[in-house]
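worker-03 picked up job from queue 'complexes'. Input manifest follows; two sequence lines, order preserved.
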Amino acid sequence: MRLYRALLRLLPRGFRLTREADLVALARESLDAARGAGALARLRVGAALARDVVRQAVRLRAGRFARGLAQDLRVAFRRLRRSPLRSTVTVLSLGIGLALNTTVFSLVNAFYLRPSEFPDPARLVTIFEASATQLCAGCSVGTSAPGYLDWRDGTRAFERLEASEETAVVVSAPLTPERVSAARVTPGLFAALGIAPRLGRDFAEADASPGATAVALIGDRLWRRGFGGDPGVVGRDLRVNGGPVRIVGVLPPDFAFPSVAEIWLPYRPDPAGDRSDRSVGVIGRLRRGVSIEAARAEVRALAAAQVREHPETQAEWTADVVRLADARTGEEGRVFLIMLGAVALVLLVTCANIAALALGVSAERARELALRSALGGGRLRLMRLPVLEALVAGVAGGALGLLGAAWGISLARIRISEPVPYYIRFTIDWRVVVFCVVAAVAAAVLVGLLTGWHATRGDLVGVLKTGGRGGGRGSGRIRAGLLAAELAVVVVLLACAGLLARSVVRLADDAGGYDRRGLTLATLPLAGDRYEDPAWVRDRVAELRDRLRTLPGTTTALSATVFLAGFGATDQLVRIEGAPTPPQASPRFAFAVTPGFFEAQGLRLLAGRAFDDRDTPSAEPVAIVNAWMAEHLWGGAPVVGRRVRLRPADPDDPWRRVVGVVSDLDGDRRGRGGRSYAYVPFDQGPARPLQLLARTVPDQAPPVAAIREALAAVDPDEPLSDVRSADEDRARSVWFAGYFAMFYAAFAGFGLALAVVGVFGVAAQVVGERMREFGIRIALGADPARLSRVVLRSSGGVALAGILAGLAGARLAAPLLGSLLFGADPVDPIALGGAGVVLFVTVLVASAWPARRAARADPAVILRAD
Amino acid sequence: MKPHDFQILLALAEEPRHGSGIVRAVLDQTAGALRLWPVKLYAALESLAEEGLIEALPDRERPPGASARRHYYRPTRAGRQALAAEADRLAHLADTARTRLARRQRSRS
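worker-03 finished. Artifact:
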């Protein structure tokens, strides 16, 4: 029977206490009834009794827990309804915090968490050349065609080693001429990746042999755009770069390897190719059981051999092997990861804020909880209510967060105008949803525990005695601590936003040496074999110029970029007659421009003459330099009439006479000094692709249609692509910085708003709790202004502590922004100091109202209320 | 209605009973097939009381000589109605069963 009583303790307390006697009596009766039936029967009855207790205990407790939960949930809802302002602030701030986190997480997800589209991705690697001296540190390039062949034939670590080269082609039929991203790939590439065409066949070795029929694989999007998704497309022809190409297959959707290609052509690497042209991307599939380290060692040994054999191009170069997945995450992925850290901080601030807000009402809460605790509720049971209340807010906030994230992601997609590699997709998938839910629950539980723990802690009797007037010293200190921590985080965010904003402003401020208003830009790819012939290019451009010349009110010009300095060991210095070339003064590229270019671009002629129709291919080779180059190459001496060789490494490159000097194209771009630019007449050095410049008076629409017409008359297969204003062009080149500055500004703005709410709430509570004291002090003749100052000083103290901690944090966090700063100083005193000042002023403003309330404490009203 | 709730209501139909009285009555009316163990019984009594189908007997109506420690229960009006409805349902079921069995026998012969 003692055993039975012990077992009964399993039952819920309330149930047991009222019925224990009845239960024991009944059990005894059952046992007595079995007395005559022998030991075995008694044992059986005992077992049945025990089973009965255990089974019912589980059932009753589960039922009571569920009912308690439902009841608490109802209470939580009621309470949220009763203080709509606080609930709205809670849900909204949780919602915004979660939206920020979810948006940034979706970016991280796109880079890090999406599963690879390739089977057995761990064995896929990319192999590339790298140089500590010939490239910026950490930069990498592909390899050359002969370099790839060396690797393919000289390594044993790979099952297959395949190559691809990104390019762009013009597809004219069945599309209206359009520039399409393309890739030339070795025929085994798709097999190595493990991707099979959805229609037709893969490339075969024969496709890449000389004299084979020109064939192509097309991507899903091109298939739908050009052929309406017709399954009979295999075997039909496309016009690529002006020639017919047979379609042999269609690749699966969401595939654009290596990054944005829509059409693939067979590639046959040329063993006699230029080793300094490192534009070939190499993909390898490791043999089973071969480690990446072993492969790296093999490739490095081969690279060392290449240095010995081809020192002129390979000196100071080595090679590296990296998993494809790692190569893809890259710098942007890390940036997003840092951003996730920043928004996690924002969410923490949100939680601290909501908790501080809830602690304020915990005066009333503490009284109620004390009462319930006195009536016999366990602490865990009491904590459940605040946690539940926060969870209800968290669910609403999480839903808001997902909506906000969907909006944020679409915003991010619009802002990213650059073509994004196909394997990076910003979408809300299940991982993002799970993240949002987990973050919402974690935030809610954190808030609930922070408030609940405090409210159920310690001296309940004391709370009841004081009539629940304020949580006492302890709660004040916790609130101040939470607030200071929150302010510190906001300072870090503000400082980062300030740093980024300054780097963006500097980039955007860099107006360049010309007027962007009324300037329209477009691109003419001039792709394809026909344009291999410089004479053909020259004639087409001459014809196009004749047609464009007649456009009213518009100055048009064409230019092409001529690269002078390649990567690698090629000489990057131009040669000037009669003197050694000063270092750092040589242009890295020149522009081949048509007459009228300077006028269209808006550059001023400072000396000599501009190009004109005299500068024919047979006339004396001439060049024009910019003021920066003139200054740095010739040290301020007159330069018109001097001679220069732009490509001294090329024996065919002529000496050019400098006939003019023009103003600089750009000023202090990206924190660096000016740059050297050289210009040559287009007819004396035709190149492609072409940039078209059309200058109209500001606000007049550029005659794009007329330009298209003129182009179609010259070459119906040539597209006028990427038409944009010079302002758009500028914006595009700084979008990355602008994008992140915008993000951080949003974080910081939100953080600041939270800080206002937090400071206001805490100051108002402190004042509310001390109203009695203030009233008495006023009654005793204290100066009201002094009381205001008391409140402001306490807020200011907390703010100062927070700001100091925050500045220390910013000092540590800012360098993480790294490359986003575009060379800006990570401890920029203006950004850091500005963040501190902005926050301090915000804190004072937010506590102004509570401070005034303190000053107007009316002793009569307050004392009467007691 | 759950079978043991029905049995308890049935046991209380004639006169108020206390715990062990109910256990014995249920054993009787089911010919020993259903034995209500103590906690099960009181849990069922609790939920029946919460549903308003039974109530505890006030002290003054307690049968003379009954122990003061023992709770007596009786069905409420709603409890009686629920019991009657359940009995009707069971009777109807039993009728249907009999009719169908009889029909099947006839078609076989």
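worker-03 released lock.
The first strand of chain B starts at residue 17 and ends at 18.
The helical segments of chain B are 3-12, 19-29, 38-50, 77-108.
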